[in-house]
Amino acid sequence: MTTAEVLSLVGPGLDRVDGRQKVAGAAPYPGDFSLPHLAHAALVQATVAAGRIRSIDATAARAAPGVLAVITHENAPRLARAPGALTMGPPPPLQHDRVLHHGQHVAVIVAETAEQAAAAARLVEIGYEQAQPLLDLGDPRAERIDNGAGRDVQRGDAAAGLASSAVAVDVTYTTPTQTHNPLGLFATAAYWDGDALTIHDSTQGPSFVRRALAVTFGVPESGVRVLAPFVGGAFGAGLRVWEHVVLVALAARTVARPVRLVLTRAQMFSSIGYRPRTVQRVRIGATGTGELAAIDHHGTEPAALEDSYAESLTRGTSVLYACGNLSARTTQVRLNVACPTWMRGPGEAPGIFALECAMDELAWELGQDPVELRLRNYAEVHPQTGRPWASKALRACYEQGAERFGWSRRTAQPRSMRAGGLLVGYGMASAYYGYVQAPCQARASLGRDGIAFVRSAGTDIGTGTYTVMTQVAAEALGLPPGQVRLGLGDSDMPPAPLQGGSGLTAAMGSAVHAACRQLVQAFLDVVADDPDSPLRGCGLADVRVGDGRISRPGEPASSEAYGAILSRHGLDELSADGASARREDTGMEPGIFAAKFAEVHVDPDLGLVRVTRVVAAVDGGRILNEKTATSQIIGGTVGGIGMTLLEETVADPGTGRIANASFGDYLVAVNADVPDIDVIFVGEPDPMNPIGVKGVGEVAIVGVAPAIANAVFHATGRRIRSLPISIEQLL
Ligand code: MOS
Asked: What is the pLDDT of residue 6?
C-alpha cells in the first residue's frame, strides 16, 4: 500500500468526534467512575527526603471514623518489580523502611469517604531517622551516571575543532524542574474479583499498566483490565505506572472492595514525575563566515536513586546541523528526588533551548542573521550516519516561517525596534524531534447496519486520536465518518503502544489502516465464489471503496453495499485484525522538524515580557487533520510560553519539599499570556509508514523557549540564560 492510495480526507479536518460528548460532560474520565460499595484512599507522604522510618503509630488513624485499613510497609504484602523498569515505573511502594525522597508514599488509608480517608491520613504519626539528603547537582557525594539514555553522540574531534575556530561561544544555560500539571487530576479506581483486577486509570498506556500490575501482583495478565477511555491531559505524566496506581490496587485487594483515589493538586507535583532541571554547557565554534567547526554540548540533570529514567537531552544537538566535530552528552546525578519522567518534548525541549540560544549567540558574534546561520549549516543528510532523511522540509520551515512572520523587517541591533514605549524583539529557533514508532494492533468490524467499530487499546489524552483514527478508518473502508465508531483506552482491545514520543498516530493509524483494509479483504473473501456478486473473484487491488460500498472501478453497476453482502450470506458482521510494526531500518533517517519565530514586547522600566506573536512552521509529514494538528501546535506553543516565562517547580534546598505545589504558586500560561499563534504545515507524506505521518505532539513545544529567549535578547540586549525568564532577571 503506498501513501498515494489512501487518505483523501486530509485537509481542513473533521471536527472532534468526541467534542459533543466532552462539552456535555458525557465523556467519563477516570475520576468519574463510581462503583457499588466504593471505598476511598488517601496517601501519607514522607516529610523528609532521606533516612529511615523508625516508627509508625497508626492507632489514631485506625480508630478514626470510617477507616477500613491503614497499609504501611509493616503490613503490606511483598510486591514484585515489573521488568523493563522504565515504562513500568518506579519500584513498588511500601516494600521497605527507607525514605528515598520527600513526598514518598509511606502509607495509604482506606475509608468509607474520601474526606474520612484524608482526615485519617493526617493522624498517622511517623518517626524518621533522618539522613543528610542529596539534593544538589553539585553534591560530591552523589553518584554520577554518564550516557544513561545511551544517546551520547561523538563524531570527529570537538576539542580540536573548537581550538581552531575563528569565532566561538562558550555558554551555560539552565532550565528548572517543571511539572506536567494537566487539568485533570490523576485518578485511579480499582476492584478485584479473585485474581482478576479491573482498574480505571489516568494513563497514556493501558497495555503497559496491565502488564505492570500483573507482574507486580503476580496475577495472570489476561485477568487484568485497564480502562482509560478519556484522560484529562497528561503531557507525559501518564507514561509510567506510578506508585499510587499500585497502592489503589493494593488497597482494593486489602479491603475486598472497589477503591478510588484522586490525587490532590499538590500530589500532582510529587507523585507522577516531572521534567528534571538541567545545567547545560554549550560550546560552538565556527569559521569567520559561519560554517560550524565544532559543537560541544554537555548536560547535567538529576536522576532518582532507584530508577533508570534518562532522557535524550542532547540528542537534537547531534542531528540539527552539518558539523563534523561534535560531542553531545548527558550526565545524570543520583539525588534524593522523586522519579523524573518524560514531559512535553522530553529531552529536546530543554536541550534544544540551550543549543538554539547558543546558536543565536554565535550568530550575534559573527554578525550574521540567525536564519542565515542555520541555512548555512543545513544538514542535507543525517549528520551522524550520513544517510538520507526519510523526509525533511526544515528549509521550507525556515523560509515560509520567516516569510509569514515578517522576519525581513528585523533590524539586527538589539534595542533597535520599538512599539510605543516598549522594546520589540524578534527571535527564532530550529526544532527537531526524533519520534518513536512502536508496534500496534487494531481490530475492525462492520455489521449489517453499515456501522464500523474500530478499536485499539491506546488512549486519546486530548490530542484528537479518536478523530484522526475515525478519519483513517472511514477512508480505508469507504464510509462516512459518522458511520465509524472508535474504541480506545481499554487493555482488552488489541495492544497499543504508549501515547507518547509523538508516535501513536503513526503506529495506530497504520494498524487501523491495515485492519480496515483486511476487513475489506474479508468481504471480498465472502463473495469470492458468489455468483450473485459483481465483486466475485476480485482482489483488494481490483476494487475501490466509497459510500459504504465496494465497487469495481469503471463499472458503476458493479458494486455492493457491505450490508447487502452480509445479509445475503446470513452474517451479522465481519471482523479483521491489523498491525503495524516497529519502524524498520529503511536506510533512511526519520525526523520531525520545525522553525519557530517569536515576537516579544518588553517594558524597559518594568522588565515585563509579553509574547506578542508566534509563527510555527512545522514539518510533521502528512497532516491527517489540520484542525486537531493545529490545536496540538497551539497547545505546545502555550506550554512553551509557560516553560520560558512562568513555569518552575521550586524545591526547598534543605528538605526537598516542593514549595509551590499549587496553581496559585506554580504559574502556567493562561489566556492573557497567549498571543496570536500562527501555524503552517509544510511537510510532505513521510515514507516511513503507510499513512505518511510523523507526529506533531512534541515538536510543538520544542524551539519555542529559545525563539522567545532570543527575542528577549534582541529586544533588550540582555542574555537571560536561566529559565524561566523573570522580571527580576531583566531588571
Ligand atoms: Mo509525551 S512527554 O511522550 O507524553
From this structure: 44
CATH of 278-436+586-730, one of 3.10.129.10, 3.30.365.10, 1.10.10.10, 3.10.690.10: 3.30.365.10
Contacts of 620 (CB under 8 A, 6+ apart): 592, 594, 629, 681, 683, 693, 694, 695, 696, 699
Pocket test for ligand 1, best of 179, 208, 239, 341 (most atoms within 8 A of CB): 239
Query: Does 244 sit in the ligand 1 pocket, CB within 6 Å?
Result: no
Tell me if the bond preceding 724 is cis, omega within 30° of 0.
yes
Beta carbon of 239 within 6 Å of any ligand 1 atom:
yes
- Ligand 1 in contact with 236 (CB < 6 A)? yes
Neighbours of 5 (CB within 10 A): 13
617 Cα to the center of ligand 1, angstroms: 21
Q: Which three cell numbers stand for residue 280?
A: 547545560
- CATH of the domain spanning 19-26+437-580, picked from 3.40.50.10800, 3.30.365.10, 2.60.120.820, 3.90.470.20: 3.30.365.10
- Do residues 310 and 303 lie in contact, with contact meaning Cβ atoms separated by under 8 Å? yes
Residue 431 above 70 pLDDT?
A: yes
433 lines ligand 1 (CB under 6 A): no
197-237 pLDDT, tens per residue? 999 999 999 999 999 999 999 999 999 999 999 999 999 99
User: Which atom of ligand 1 lies nearest, measured to the CA of 238?
Assistant: 4
Same fold, 19-26+437-580 and 33-133+183-233+238-271: yes
Give catalytic residues, as residue numbers: 698
- Cβ of 343 below 6 Å from ligand 1: yes
Task: State in Å: Cα 502 to ligand 1 middle.
Answer: 7
Measured from the Cα of 239, ligand 1's closest atom is: 4
Query: What's the CA-to-centroid distance between 98 and ligand 1, angstroms?
Result: 30
Show the beta-strand stretches assigned E in 637-705.
676-681
Please name the fold of domain 33-133+183-233+238-271: Aldehyde Oxidoreductase; domain 4 (3.30.365)
User: Average pLDDT, whole number, for the chain?
Assistant: 95
pLDDT at 82: 79
| pTM over cut 0.85 | yes
pLDDT number for residue 434: 87
**Residue 477 predicted with pLDDT over 60:** yes
DSSP code of residue 275: B
| Beta strand extents in 205-286 (DSSP E only) | 224-227, 259-262, 278-286
pLDDT tens column, 485-517: 999 999 999 999 999 999 999 999 999 999 999
